[in-house]
Amino acid sequence: MQIIDEIREWVTIKKYTDEKIEPEILERILDAGIRAPSAKNRQPWRFIACTGDSVRSKIMDAAYGQDHVGSAPVIIAACTTNIEYKMPNGQISYPIDISMAVSFMMIQARAEKLGTCVVTTYDEAEIKDILSVPYSMRVVMLLIVGHPDEDPILTKRKLKSRVIAHEHW
Ligand SMILES: Cc1cc2nc3c(=O)[nH]c(=O)nc-3n(C[C@H](O)[C@H](O)[C@H](O)COP(=O)(O)O)c2cc1C
Fold this sequence. Notes:
The chain has seven helices and four strands, in the order H-H-E-H-H-E-H-E-H-E-H.
């Protein structure tokens, strides 16, 4: 038994073909996200799936014109509905909760033979305006999804011995 392929061969995809994503596949990706765990199961999220040409083009502009953002047939804006809740350890929960959900979506997308890229390089105020996100909410990240048009080499990771410890730091 190895780590599942979707994780072992994980790589971000930034080039996509013109092929659209079937609505039922998009639905499965979104469903995977909302199965993710969250602090106290509060699920402080709202995912805005964007497939229309016009809205995607506006989002690309708000993401400083990054080509891969414009070329992906699906952009999911992962938003939070609560920016204040702190977990018992004193940390703010929403970036963690949203990241959990987006990770689940990425793995589902990969299992569907699709590529994804997390995008955080954007003008949040502009994205909020484009997607009518309420003032008090936040767009935590964008997840772009599409059919891969590249086969990038695996990215390196730090040595296991540097990042994993047992019993103490
Ligand atoms: C929190 C986070 C933010 C990221 N922001 C961006 C981004 O704004 N633009 C982009 O092209 N890639 C972005 N990425 C993708 C990373 O650059 C990529 O995951 C990293 O270089 C490792 O490559 P890999 O995913 O192929 O292993 C982001 C990834 C994460 C997890």
